[in-house]
Write a structure and sequence with these properties.
alpha/beta, D-Maltodextrin-Binding Protein, domain 2, 10-stranded mixed β-sheet, 10 strands, 2 domains
């Protein structure tokens, strides 16, 4: 871990050196920078954005203003980001694989593609979590699978939105357990999803650790499985899908900050340096971990490569999602 942090620090230092002597970057920013967040206020993504902004704006020398543009599974926010002037004064969160799925679904008629954005820096890698209300009859993930097989398409399973990583998590679960099919219920973000799950309006919640952690910690919810290769330090007693013999069910949500295509590379470098440094601030890590969010900083070629690979991986499930409509 120490080696990784050193490598990131060196890369961010190189990004800072890149901008020395470049006039446009030396004077940037001269006013507030807007940070578009694709989720409603109050959810895990919004919380993470506000924590980051409060730290990063000190290094940037100008305010970072959070602009919430929830709705349409992120498409509203990403459309606005893609259409923004590429001058560094409008940047935005992009979640993967959510954005990739919007691009890959022709029915969404997105006016942007994966090429419409420039990756700056990744902040969060949030593993998937399957959970139920505390008084649910389902005690284990195996109980959920058995019920989905016994009465296909009747067990109500919620997601944070159409083509979200939670939606893909359900598709992976169905694929890995032939005969198990859920009745899909899509919500607009984690806040609504958690509320409706605790109200008993859905039977099982496919979420992320960051979105569900407060419900689990309060005893209102029961975590069944983490869709990752290793147990989460936030939920050390909860098994992973790999432990349960389901290694094909690996789902997570990454949240990073992007700029519109055409933003000068000097400005991208400055933003990467400032935001990356803020993400490695102990206060940032402490406050995000309190929300059950795992910080995973990626910058430069590492993040660009991850971005390309995430889009390729999403192509398979885009087709599968079209064959599993909500009922």
């Amino acid at each position: 871990m120490a080696v990784r942090h050193l490598a990131i620090a060196l890369l961010l230092s190189s990004a800072t050196l890149l901008i020395v002597g470049r006039g446009s970057a030396q004077t940037y920013p001269e006013r507030a920078v807007n940070l578009i967040v694709h989720a409603p206020a109050g959810g895990a993504t919004d919380v993470g954005a506000r924590v980051l902004a409060s730290i990063a704006e000190k290094g940037l020398g100008q305010p970072i203003v959070i602009v919430n543009r929830g709705g349409a599974g992120g498409q509203i926010a990403w459309t606005e980001l893609a259409r923004s002037k590429p001058d560094g004064y409008t940047i935005g969160y992009v979640v993967m694989p959510g954005m990739n799925m919007v691009v890959l679904d022709p029915d969404r008629k997105a006016t942007f593609t994966e090429e419409s954005f420039i990756p700056i820096v990744n902040q969060i890698l949030d593993p998937g979590l399957v959970w139920v209300k505390a008084d649910s009859p389902f005690k284990t993930f195996a109980d959920v699978i058995a019920a989905a097989k016994a009465a296909p398409r009747t067990l109500r399973a919620s997601t944070t939105g159409l083509f979200s990583d939670d939606h893909l998590n359900i598709l992976m679960t169905e694929e890995a357990n032939p005969g198990a099919y859920f009745r899909l219920v899509h919500f607009d973000g984690s806040v609504a999803q958690v509320k409706e799950t605790l109200a008993g309006n859905v039977d099982v919640c496919f979420d992320n650790i960051g979105g569900a952690i407060n419900a689990i910690r309060s005893g209102q919810g029961r975590a069944l499985v983490v869709t990752d290769t290793v147990r989460s330090k936030f939920l050390p007693d909860v098994p992973t899908t790999v432990e349960l013999g389901l290694p094909s069910i690996i789902s997570n949500s990454t949240r990073g900050i992007f700029a519109p295509k055409g933003t000068p590379k000097e400005i991208i470098a400055k933003l990467a340096a400032v935001l990356g440094k803020a993400m490695m601030d102990p206060e940032h890590t402490k406050r995000l971990e309190a929300q059950g969010l795992t910080v995973r900083v990626m910058v430069g070629e590492e993040y660009r490569r991850y971005y390309r690979e995430a889009h390729e991986n999403a192509k398979k499930y885009a087709a599968l999602a079209k064959s599993r409509p909500a009922k």
